[in-house]
Write a structure and sequence with these properties.
Chain lengths: 328, 349, 349, 328
């Protein structure tokens, strides 16, 4: 029996599933006792599962995240929620110095199976400190797993897999996707290592690679390009760390052209990783054209509406950039 | 210590301190200016509330309606060479240093003529030449900056101070605790002003901290501190004057906590009674009776310093200003597209 | 409060508290075990000091020689299901839970047979099954982890506690302040143990904080706390017992500060008197007279619980253990090269 | 008149020059009153210039860095010193949310001209939390300038330029370079934008690109390869952000092959930026071979000596990897 969900409700379903089935799971973060902080993704969890499992907190991102790491070493499966990735900059030590390195430093005798849910919450003239998606940073750190769901099913299934993983996982969802709809199969648990890059549309002339909201742009642009008889293959990355580029390389060997869309900045961003991991794995003459990266403009997020409109890539800017690069 | 505890008990009970202020002993012009400034801030924010509700304003606005006594009472002890920092709820702070409606409105609308040239909106305000160095929405983000600005003031041989307006939520960020110690040990003449409105977004302070006053953190760091009725502008002014002057003269930090309350919800125009945890309609109504502007204006009526009609005229005059400033701001241009990239660095390349 | 201030004044004066401990009322076996464990830690660290000086040990070692009473006095109130965390100076902490010389030495040498399978060295120690969850050199890095481990203990219905050993330097990190509030408000049975050795690397506490005791931060967060003579193992034991048991029973945090002193410099074998700011040769000599092991052993001699000869025999026995453990560790294998990559993740791929 | 300096003493000279000539300069950070904390790079500054300009601090990286940002807005030219980049993870908010975005958020009306000196201090069996060089992270952030000196002259001149710049600058030096020696011209101030990538050895067959200690590896390897008649061009990046790839592209158009050596991790690291910015700027057939990235192993830094030896690239591993990739 399929159920209708949107991306937001799929996240809620994942929480409910986890809380129903795993007493070790608890959720902690800012805004969890408020109905409007994190969209509909955690609605009524506190009344359903109790305020001792759904824990709202002081404004102390650093200690709250560290608490999650410590609890995870003891058998709890904590999910630490940061309503904005921007706020997590206070919690970087616990994530990068402690959680990511703990297994290695202790000779793999103990694993911080914490899930950190960082929400990308941008646009709406909120500006530089309320917009960031630092997924490239976390992709850079060995020891972290970084998942970014694009599809409704992934939004649900990845959260479950993240919570059940013994490794520290950054699960990053994007509020711009919350209304995406789909019909989902009943929940079946998947291992976190199953969420490899995936072809979500087949094509012949060009591969466009994205993750999270960028995959939506890739798909949207590809449908437009299709009308002009340009056949585009679209790949959704899903897992940025550890990153497996096999599928991308195969696809590009076929299409011989590729573009990457990424919701971060360009310099040393994940779009650079995608590009590099492809070009270093095939002889140059297997490509018909130089690759293209489409990213945020090289500035902090502006607040003023007209600047916001050019700061974030959108379907038409993507099409424009692709046509320009590939002379299509 | 016990005096403070008793005072706190009364301060967090909204049924207390509703009486009009005793204005005796103050110059009429001082009272008049104070009332004028508070009313300016109030009406400007009411305008923002309604324009935000209407949809003219695209980004969030965090309103300090009900809290004006803190900004105004403090700023009367400041000068334009001081270095003031705020946070997400800082319209009152910037206006208390320079009540330029047009620049505020233009900024909130993202216009080139705004306080931050349209690059910041409501949550990123700056007006350096009037002493307002900047506000940003990362909770506590500017607090160590204020310590540094104060340190610079001292290093340069001035007697200016650095000041950080923070909330009862911000105090929970570790960097604020570090900043208290740092300001003490250097020392740096930093004024920490806590507007304790008993809430951090939806969460009552009693759900976040073991006590409802934050002065204890100043105590722990041996920083001079005091707890005041944050809805009594005269008390805020008088009491903070002593501490701020000490900071100026000695180059040491101080800490001023005022208990207050916001009339609106955490963000935008809704009163949001039902989404605040431990925030009841009844409380809000009681708190409206402790309104800082009402307490001052009625005090002034009773002392016959101004008449109700005078005050109505003030309101009308300010409202006129607001309307014309708004209309001007609406017509102003947005930053041109090149500004997205040219304002990132100081253009040395 | 004033009692505490008086006590502090005496505690930071090394000329005080040099007398042998009064051991009356204690079981001989308890005293014997305590002395034995402290001596084990002392001699193991002396071995590390000399091997580091000699060059056999490649990485830095932070020695707690002089501070053994804290680890031992506390650990006598702990069990193997408790969750203990340390920092850069944690040989004493891990040995107090499990005095396995071989595992410590092997770890310091980077051998597969070490506490952390050779992946951590001196600064990253773990022995989970004996209650020692981990130590790392980022100052204060494990403090919120201890709050979380304590929270887990409570959630799982046990009466175990989480414990963080920290220094007077670590308390300056904001995350420790956040952790105090968090442990209090949740609540979480976290025991914060401050080994206040008056220094953070080269800097005397008086150059870093306005007061020389750190208990005031516990006060600010309404966390039960006490200040003890950190070189009196019996006092540490007795007084911490009460607070730790409260934490166990009530699920609430507590805070125990012991004033102590390290005989060596911040890192490695040098006494480094001259590089410590406000650390004089004279002070060090006075502090040697407040040596925690000497005070206990002399107390035991005086009470005729053991003889000097017995104690010499203990020392010899431990030294023998140390030599054979070291020799074994030296011969042990390093982790194989594949371990560099296979220990990063939990191998789910 | 040339003076003999090594990398460490060159940094000291820069501090002395700045403190002598600019009363607005002050220096703050942990260990500044200790003679052994930061090598010889700050020796006796406190006694020479006073403890009110050379300020040692509590263990509070976050507030200390924020203090620097605030002071810089008022006319001071603070240099905040972190003896290890690992410790800076507590200060990320002040660097990334505040300093980097301040100019943009305030409409370029105020600029945090702070210099943050982060020292790479690794090896010596110190392990995961005492080893990191997160330059790729800072390269990712618009608004920051990121400088990594390789040469002795740059070590000195870049620090001066950083301190005098009105933008927030991360100046990253590597203790493994402190003993490098050179003869230097007298100090003359340079603008921060002058430190563009630079060819430090000309060659024809292959371009190797590095920064900081990686440039030393590149040069070392190139000299070995030269013996086998492989002519290598070596480029020292110097400024990672804002990043100017022009010179790299020209070089690679000539040599048609390139490798990047970087002291960070691979995934979304600066080596990916170098690679991408080159391949996206030339037609694929202008390359004779796929590019190569040489980075840290994909793990936290180990402590055990034999693992440390394989974790960090060295000249012979660089030569091995280059020969394998380019079939040389
Ligand atoms: C670092 C960070 N964490 C969380 C938030 C979300 N947030 C915005 S305002 C706020 C409450 C702040 O409360 P307080 O300091 O009391 O200020 P008030 O809103 O009451 O004026 C929170 C948690 C944020 N903006 N920044
Ligand atoms: C986050 C961080 N900042 C700075 C350091 C450098 N450091 C190592 S130990 C130490 C002193 C810590 O002092 P304290 O907490 O009192 O412990 P003690 O050395 O006295 O045992 C410092 C500053 C570090 N390791 N981590
Ligand atoms: Mg508040
Ligand atoms: Mg200490």
């Amino acid at each position: 029996m399929k159920t209708k969900e949107n991306y937001g409700s799929a996240i809620l379903s994942a929480f409910e599933y986890l809380l129903d089935n795993y007493p070790e799971v608890f959720v902690i973060g800012q805004g969890l006792w408020s109905p409007w902080y994190v969209g509909n993704t955690m609605k009524d969890l506190d009344s359903k599962f109790g305020k001792d499992r759904i824990i709202d907190t002081p404004v102390s991102e650093s200690a709250v995240t560290g608490l999650g790491v410590g609890a995870s070493l003891c058998g709890s499966k904590p999910i630490v929620v940061h309503p904005r990735i921007d706020f997590m900059l206070y919690a970087i030590d616990s994530i990068v110095n402690q959680a990511a390195k703990w297994s290695h430093m202790t000779g793999a005798q103990s694993h911080p199976g914490i899930t950190i849910r960082g929400i990308i919450n941008r646009g709406g003239e909120q500006g530089a400190q309320h917009s960031q998606s630092l997924h490239s940073w976390f992709a850079h750190i060995p020891g972290l797993r970084v998942l970014m769901p694009y599809s409704v099913a992934d939004a649900r299934d990845m959260l479950i897999a993240a919570a059940l993983s013994k490794d520290p996982v950054m699960y990053i969802d994007d509020r711009w996707l919350y209304d995406t709809k789909d019909e989902l199969d009943p929940i079946s648990e998947k291992s976190i290592s199953e969420f490899k890059p995936k072809i979500i549309k087949y094509g012949e002339d060009l591969t466009i690679i994205g993750s999270s909201f960028s995959t939506k742009l890739a798909l949207g642009a590809s449908l437009e390009l299709e009308k002009e008889r340009i056949s585009v293959e679209v790949i959704d990355i899903r897992t940025l760390n550890p990153f497996d580029s096999k599928l991308l390389i195969e696809s590009v060997k076929k299409t011989k052209r590729f573009a990457v869309i990424d919701g971060g900045w360009k310099n040393s961003g994940f779009s650079a990783e995608v590009t590099s991991s492809i070009v270093e794995s095939m002889e140059p003459n297997q490509l018909l054209s130089k690759p293209l990266r489409i990213t945020l403009a090289n500035s902090p997020a502006p607040t003023s509406k007209p600047l916001e409109d050019i700061y974030f890539p959108n379907i038409s800017s993507v099409i424009r950039d692709i046509k320009a690069n590939f002379f299509l | 210590m016990n005096d403070k505890a008793d005072l706190l008990t009364r301060l967090i009970n909204p049924k207390e301190f509703q009486e009009p202020l005793d204005v005796s002993g103050y110059e009429s012009s001082f009272l008049y200016e104070t009332l004028y400034l508070m009313t300016q801030i109030r009406l400007a924010e009411e305008k923002l509330a309604s324009e935000r509700e209407f949809g003219t304003i695209g980004g969030p606005v965090h309103l300090s309606v009900g809290q004006e006594a803190m900004a105004v009472g403090i700023s009367k002890n400041l000068n334009k060479k001081d270095r003031v920092f705020g946070a997400h709820r800082s319209h009152s702070h910037i206006l208390s240093m320079n009540p330029d409606f047009h620049k505020l409105f233009a900024e909130v609308l993202g216009k080139e003529t705004g306080f931050s040239r349209g690059m910041g909106g409501s949550m990123h305000l700056t007006d350096k030449k009037n002493g307002f160095y900047g506000s940003v929405p990362i909770v506590s983000g500017t607090v160590p900056l204020a310590v540094g600005a104060a340190f610079d003031a001292r290093r340069s041989g001035t007697n200016n101070i650095g000041l950080a307006f923070i909330g009862d939520g911000a105090i929970e960020e570790g960097v604020v605790q570090e900043s208290l110690n740092l300001a003490k040990i250097l020392p740096s003449p930093t004024v920490f002003v806590v507007e304790n409105n008993l809430f951090a977004s939806h969460m009552n302070i009693s759900l976040r901290q073991p006590m409802r006053s934050t002065c204890r953190f100043a105590e722990a760091n041996k920083v001079e501190n005091l707890l005041v009725d944050g809805n009594n502008v005269l008390e805020v002014y008088e009491k903070s004057k002593v501490l701020i002057n000490n900071s100026r003269n000695d180059g040491t930090p101080c800490f001023i906590e005022g208990v207050t309350f916001r009339h609106y919800g955490h963000v935008d125009w809704r009163k949001d009674v039902d989404v605040g945890v431990d925030r009841s309609q009844e409380d809000i109504e009681e708190w409206m009776k402790r309104d800082p502007i009402q307490r001052l204006s009625i005090g002034m009526f009773e002392a016959a310093i101004i008449s109700k009609q005078d005050y109505q005229n003030i309101n009308d005059e300010i409202s006129q200003d607001i309307i014309s400033s708004w209309e001007k701001a609406i017509k102003d241009p947005y930053p041109t597209e090149d500004k997205l990239l040219t304002r990132v660095y100081c253009n040395e390349d």
